[in-house]
């Protein structure tokens, strides 16, 4: 992309990833992808990203403040959720989107102990993954566990009046301990994906090259679209912390957005975005990571309803950090790609 401007024009391009598909598989209109986090996008998206999506889990246990509630099978089925595992081929690449149920409490407690964290997000989808793998074995994937490994578990990053009470209630209900450890209870993560490959590796280096948003604006058929939620937590009813990843594949390229969204009511809003773009016959992918953040006190001129919509509020958040990288493929794959 041409370098992201901090104001609305480019944000509207990026944050309007609107997916608009025709009823038939053969004729799908191109979309301007909309980065929606309040509900489902496209026909393939069976899981929304708001409070209502919880009703869509089947054969799972729902964890609410440390209490497990058995979900009604009939009511869940009526909302249409089912586990899915989809593969889509794009040249030498295979895109895999796996979505299943939230982890059980006991599994989460064991994982929290392993990760040395007093508590983990209430809704943790440990087996959900979005993976992009080349035929030669290298690639990149996005999963909840690796995202949580990038959380600073040694300090509180946000100080609010309810933070201590919240931590103590979580510790008491989920994994009682003599002392409540300090950790980032907002689960803020700068996760940018997990590189894959045992014998062949992607080389990562800084770059001044940008994702070309003009190409993404072009009307092009959407061959595949999917969104995968990795985790979500309502911060004891004091906001929301969540991370999800979505991808769209066109005939000549694919574009991915990994978004961490944090809203601590009365305190701040933060968005960490990772964008990944690859054009067919190129020997690399471009990855851009950005952080936008603002104190709530600086957003008083914005209608409160906008605070809950990451796409709308993003254009009002100052850019704090921007890093651009080139992910270069191993030489053999690069030569094969250039000959396609």
UniProtKB/TrEMBL annotation:
The GO annotation for biological process reads: TOR signaling
The entry's cellular-component GO terms read: cytosol
Task: Identify the PANTHER family for this entry.
Answer: GAF/PUTATIVE CYTOSKELETAL PROTEIN, TIP41-LIKE PROTEIN
What does the similarity note say? Belongs to the TIP41 family.
This protein is called what? TIP41-like protein
